[in-house]
Design a protein that fits this description.
The protein has one helix and twelve strands, in the order αββββββββββββ. By secondary structure, the protein is mainly β. It has one domain: outer membrane lipoprotein receptor (LolB), chain A. The termini are far apart. The N terminus is likely disordered.
């Protein structure tokens, strides 16, 4: 009976873990790995997440393999920045001075919801390199997404695996909660906000 009681407590402990909610602003660096036709490509980037002011920015050193950036300037190695401000997402290529309007929050182009893991399943603890992390599973558009988070008060993201096709490794040591200056989310001058230039129809935005 004692063994059964202990086992029940362990089961309850696992299932009672609440998924993290990222309702605070932060900055973090990341390394992405894209798998295309059985080949892997690595990209570095920065995430500026500001849910308090409903805005987000993602910088990539190369947008070629990203599902939003890549189809806009196909087969080209060039940096890409995604700005999501005022419920609109823009795709900008600073080296090309090219910018287009992707779509708005009503059509799936808002910022990542702070509670995007609300329907996720806690999978327990798992080691990455020499550190133990919490693991979460959530059904996505093309399969399951897995997120590993640090065992700290902020549940700092460590790794996101999108069905094995796209993996993001976050730099735990670069994580910083902060209040952003307005300039971080200011659109470049070559983004025409008065007369919208829509991203190509053949892109994910289209």
């Amino acid at each position: 009976m004692i063994a059964i009681a202990i086992w029940s407590i362990l089961i309850f402990t696992v299932t009672a873990v609440d998924p993290p909610v990222y309702n605070f602003s932060y900055h973090i660096a990341f390394d992405e790995t894209y798998t295309v036709n059985k080949s892997s490509y690595e990209v570095n980037g920065l995430l500026f997440y500001d849910p308090i002011n409903n805005r987000e920015r993602v910088d990539r050193t190369n947008g070629r393999y990203n599902k939003f950036c890549g189809p806009i300037i196909p087969n080209t190695n060039t940096p890409c920045i995604q700005y999501t401000v005022n419920n609109k997402r823009w795709i900008a290529f600073p080296q090309k001075s090219v910018c287009c309007f992707c779509c708005d929050s009503a059509h799936g182009c808002g910022i990542l919801s702070p509670d995007w893991l609300r329907d996720s399943e806690y999978k327990g603890e798992e080691k990455i390199l020499d550190t133990i992390y919490d693991k979460w599973s959530k059904d996505g558009v093309v399969g399951y997404n897995y997120l590993w988070t640090a065992k700290d008060n902020d549940h700092t993201p460590r790794r996101l695996d999108e069905n094995g096709v796209h993996t993001t490794d976050y730099s735990i040591h670069s994580f910083k909660k902060m209040n952003f200056e307005e300039g971080v989310f200011a659109l470049p001058q070559y983004c025409n906000t008065e007369k919208l230039v829509n991203c190509p129809l053949e892109s994910l935005c289209g």
